[in-house]
């Protein structure tokens, strides 16, 4: 690693530090308030008085006045629409690993509000990660698997859980102002669930202001399709916060992943994991490979002593990028990782590949190294490339209290950059 020279940037601004930020999550006010819950373990809900089970094959509506128990795998089928009123609470059953599965052609209309979010949570008295299954939405937008379809294999023959097709603009409904807590159960029969799985979901689906907390699997997993996620929050996930695969064409905007160095998965735990396939022999290379455009995102390791956690190996990389995958991060913040980015070791360092992997106007803070090839400690070529002044990337070693407006707030942290305080350094 080359010697670091500190350069102080003076921000001659007439606006206050609480005004809209240029990098990382942005907004004139902290949009994480008031619909989120950063202490869901302590939040209590009414006992369920309605049960959801089996198959929902006709249009149905869940009402705020009831509390629902999600018993086992509940399928919405037959092009039906399940509508959930703002403020409704759905409790996933621990014993049966309750899960809500929106099958291909069906839709979920979960349109909450800032003051009345829709909540999916656990029914255990002491809630823990992986208590119940999660929410799964399956659509008929394109994927790059051979044959154009795949299955998440939650049913015995894969028919109910198939996804993929040719309708890139399909509509699987609305998720807005929704919280999904303590999901990601592990099943001996079917493997691991995620908080929210979006498989073959089309571009007309609205996905905004969604918080996934304490997921054992991934918080958000996108398999193929054309998905736009806005104001998405992943909080204290054990695996990947945002995962993209199977040729996903995705936009991630104004979103945040808040990790804990003490929550990891032996298969890898990253804020953003972007690949185009798991196995090359499963891929139709005439189809689109995964492409992710991420703007104004914040990826942060929330630690009391981030430098120590990085140096002792509790913290790993924030982003992993696989071969034949395009990813572009703009105006985003990566804070407290070791290193910031790792590229798969099969990616050749040349203009063609680096033009598909872009980091522009970034703010790298408290990272032990920035961008590396997997299993290779020599990153001089990558540092020279991404350190070029044309990318306008900034490097810093600022403490969180100086970097963010109010990251220590336990009720509603504010991870917008405190732009009148930050001190930057640049590799030279």
TrEMBL record:
Stretch forming the signal peptide: 1-19
Keywords associated with the record: Signal
PANTHER family for this protein: LIPL48, SECRETED PROTEIN
Annotated protein name in UniProt: Uncharacterized protein
Organism for this UniProt entry: Flavobacterium keumense
């Amino acid at each position: 690693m080359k010697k670091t020279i500190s350069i102080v940037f003076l921000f001659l601004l007439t606006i206050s530090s609480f005004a809209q930020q240029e990098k990382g999550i942005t907004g004139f006010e902290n949009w994480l308030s008031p619909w989120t819950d950063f202490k869901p373990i302590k939040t209590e809900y009414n006992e369920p008085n309605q049960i959801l089970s089996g198959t929902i094959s006709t249009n149905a509506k869940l009402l705020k006045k009831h509390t629902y128990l999600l018993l086992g795998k509940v399928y919405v089928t037959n092009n039906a629409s399940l509508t959930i009123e703002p403020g409704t609470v759905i409790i996933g059953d621990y014993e049966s690993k309750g899960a809500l599965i929106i099958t291909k052609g069906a839709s979920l209309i979960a349109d909450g509000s800032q003051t009345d979010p829709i909540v999916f949570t656990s029914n255990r008295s002491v809630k823990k990660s992986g208590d119940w299954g999660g929410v799964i939405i399956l659509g008929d937008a394109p994927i790059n698997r051979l044959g154009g379809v795949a299955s998440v294999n939650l049913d015995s023959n894969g028919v109910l859980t198939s996804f993929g097709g040719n309708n890139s603009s399909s509509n699987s409904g609305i998720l807005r102002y929704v919280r999904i807590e303590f999901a990601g159960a592990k099943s001996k029969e079917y493997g691991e669930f995620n908080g929210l799985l979006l498989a073959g979901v089309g571009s007309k689906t609205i996905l905004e202001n969604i918080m996934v907390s304490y997921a054992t699997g991934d918080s958000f997993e996108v398999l193929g399709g054309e998905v736009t996620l806005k104001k998405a929050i992943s909080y204290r996930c054990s695996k990947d916060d945002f995962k993209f695969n199977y040729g996903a064409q995705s936009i991630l905007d104004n979103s945040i992943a808040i990790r804990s160095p003490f929550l990891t998965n032996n298969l890898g735990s990253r804020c953003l994991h972007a690949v185009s396939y798991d196995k090359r022999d499963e891929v139709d290379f005439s189809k689109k490979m995964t492409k992710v455009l991420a703007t104004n995102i914040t990826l942060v390791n929330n630690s009391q002593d981030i430098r120590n956690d990085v140096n002792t190996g509790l913290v790993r990389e924030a982003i992993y990028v696989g071969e034949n995958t395009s990813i572009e991060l703009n105006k985003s913040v990566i804070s407290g990782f070791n290193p910031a980015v790792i590229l798969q070791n099969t990616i050749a360092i040349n203009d063609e590949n680096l033009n598909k992997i872009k980091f522009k106007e970034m703010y790298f803070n408290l990272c032990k190294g920035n961008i590396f090839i997997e299993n290779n400690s020599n990153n001089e070529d990558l540092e020279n490339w991404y350190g070029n002044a044309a990318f306008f990337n900034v490097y810093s070693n600022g403490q969180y209290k100086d970097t963010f407006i109010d990251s220590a707030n336990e009720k509603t942290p504010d991870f917008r950059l405190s732009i009148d305080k930050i001190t930057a350094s640049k590799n030279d």
